[in-house]
Specification:
Pfam families: ICL
Strand order of the largest sheet: 12-6-4-3-2-1-14-13
Shape: globular
CATH architecture of the largest domain: Alpha-Beta Barrel
InterPro entries: ICL/PEPM, Isocitrate_lyase, Pyrv/PenolPyrv_kinase-like_dom, Pyrv_kinase-like_dom_sf
Distance between the termini: 32 Å
GO biological process, one term: carboxylic acid metabolic process
GO molecular function: isocitrate lyase activity; metal ion binding
Number of domains: 2
Helix content: 40-55%
Number of strands: 14
Protein name: Isocitrate lyase
Radius of gyration: 28 Å
CATH class of the largest domain: Alpha Beta
Length: 532
């Protein structure tokens, strides 16, 4: 970002060159507006954030404690407040990203209304949300810098040069709220050409990282639902290529591709892979198909499909839907093959959708992948679809039982029961939950931890709490004590909601444009002044 005084000098020279025609333009105001608008296009953002992700990936390779995190956000305001909160509490946004969940786009942003996570929402709603998120993050920059510039004006009026110099330094070293977004393109919303076209829109909106999964586009299911159907590797590689070409066409050479595999929970495939010789990629994929060995043509009924599998003729199991069935118990082997194949064909990061948060299970697969691809790294979904309390209590129960400890006081199937909340087992499970991200990043190759739809749940929970009190006996106290008083005391910027929405920025612009004739909203009668 250019230094404020350098911008001021450049714009002063530019005004002078206009020989009086721009005398109404104040170079200081113009320089201020430039500094407050660092990113002019989504591609500026994509290139900037791609570099950040690449640096973070290298830092993680050197030290697994340097993992990254994100929360899924379904609205620009939610993403903005998340980043403002991070800067307030931690002083930096380093290694904190945003996640754009296809699940939340379907559930909350579709013009059809709430939809299941099955790629039925409008594909354009995905790049639209990316653009919205970055619009709000850029506005957070403008909002924060606007306060610094107002303080700078006051310091200059007071003749406090030391304070003014300090504020200029803070302005010049301002850390943006703009961070990388890992954006979910589902299974590509169609063929490879459709994937390419949508990827371009997402990148142009600002996405530096696109996550794509190996499910069939028209059969796509949420990773935590049943009925998932995968595609042969050749089909998936074509879509990885499509995304890479989109990045390269738009000049985002550092663009990041996350290849997700749903094979651990997918028991079906849409089609048999093309194979030319034993042991090739198609043959490996087909080797997992379930079927019955046959010895003669008499074993083949009308409509049966027969393939050669490990040198033998096999009648593969085909469902009434036309889909083919994988052999039971092959999910982990298929995951490993998927991941190795994706990394060898242009993917940068992996996503393994699992049915529970278990460090040992994840590590077992990653270690196998790293035997072939030593730098393999994961993006992992710390999913709200997991019952984290029950999962970790059961993991502790199993560990204690394996150690020979007495677990007779606990019912493994009922460990979610509140009666166990104050037990030693529950305390140990909470500690394992607290350390899950650290442990998994160290032991299971997880570079990025995300929660897909946390703000879906927080919005519902906070709304329920407010509605219960406000429409009940508490009345207005439910809002005052439960929301506003906490905002004031915890320093939440939205307590001055007019300022957060841009009223002070607008007032300053009115002064730039109209001078002394500006009609401002932030005068003495603005009720926002009650909050200091």
């Amino acid at each position: 970002m250019a230094a404020f005084n350098d911008e001021l000098k450049t714009l002063a020279q530019l005004r002078e060159a206009q020989r009086g025609k721009w005398d109404n333009i104040d170079p200081e105001h113009a320089a201020r507006m430039r500094v407050q608008n660092r990113f002019h296009t989504g591609l500026d953002i994509a290139r900037y954030t791609a570099k950040i992700m690449r640096e973070d990936m290298a830092a993680y390779d050197a030290d697994s404690a340097q993992y990254t995190q994100s929360l899924g956000c379904w609205h620009g305001f939610i993403g903005q407040q998340k980043l403002i909160s991070i800067k307030k509490h931690f002083g930096t946004t380093k290694r904190r990203y945003l996640y754009l969940s296809g699940w939340m786009v379907a559930a909350l942003r579709s013009e059809f209304g709430p939809l299941p996570d099955q790629s039925m929402h409008e594909k354009t709603s995905v790049p639209a949300l990316i653009e919205e998120l970055y619009t709000f993050l850029r506005q957070a920059d403008t909002w924060e810098l606007n306060h610094l510039f107002r303080d700078l004006e006051e310091a200059k009026k007071a003749g406090d040069q030391a304070k003014a110099d300090e504020l200029v330094a803070r302005i010049d070293n301002h850390e943006t709220h703009v961070v990388p977004i890992i954006a979910d393109i589902d299974a590509g919303f169609g063929n490879a050409e459709a994937t390419y076209l949508l990827a371009k829109k997402m990148i142009e909106a600002g996405a530096c990282c696109i996550q794509i999964e190996n499910q069939v586009s028209d059969e796509k299911q949420c990773g935590h639902q049943d009925g998932k159907v995968t595609v042969p590797h050749e089909d998936f590689i074509a879509k990885i290529n499509a995304v890479r070409y989109a990045f390269l066409e738009l000049g985002v050479e550092d663009g990041v591709i996350v290849a997700r595999t749903d094979s651990l929970g997918a028991g079906l495939t849409q089609k048999i892979a093309v194979t030319n010789e034993p042991g090739d990629l198609g043959d490996q994929y087909n080797s997992y198909l379930d079927g019955d060995e046959i010895t003669s043509a008499a074993d083949i009924d009308n409509g049966d499909v027969v393939i050669k599998q490990n040198g033998k003729l096999v009648k593969v199991k085909r469902l009434a839907s036309g889909l083919y069935q994988f052999k039971p118990g092959t999910g982990e082997d298929r995951v490993v093959l998927d991941c190795i194949t994706s990394l060898q064909n242009g993917a940068d990061l992996l996503w393994i959708e699992t049915e529970k948060p278990h460090v040992g299970q994840i590590a077992g697969m990653v270690n196998r992948i790293r035997e072939v691809c030593p730098d393999a790294k994961l993006v992992y979904n710390n999913s709200p679809s997991f019952n984290w309390t029950l999962n970790f209590r059961q993991q502790v129960f199993d560990a204690w039982e394996a150690e020979g400890r007495d677990v007779s006081a606990y019912d493994r199937a009922d460990l979610m029961n509140a009666k166990y909340d104050d037990t030693e087992l529950a305390a140990q499970a909470d500690e394992w939950t607290r350390n899950f991200q650290r442990d998994a990043s160290r032991e299971a190759g997880i570079f990025h931890h995300l929660i897909t739809l946390p703000t879906y749940h927080t919005a519902a929970l906070s709304t329920d709490n407010l509605a219960k009190g406000y429409f009940g006996d508490e009345g207005m106290l439910a809002y005052v004590a439960g929301v506003q008083r906490r905002e004031i005391r915890e320093g939440i910027a939205t307590v001055k909601h007019q300022d957060m929405a841009g009223s002070n920025i607008g007032d300053d612009h009115k002064e730039f444009f109209h001078g002394e004739a500006a009609l401002k909203a932030g005068g003495k009668d603005n009720t926002m002044n009650q909050f200091g």
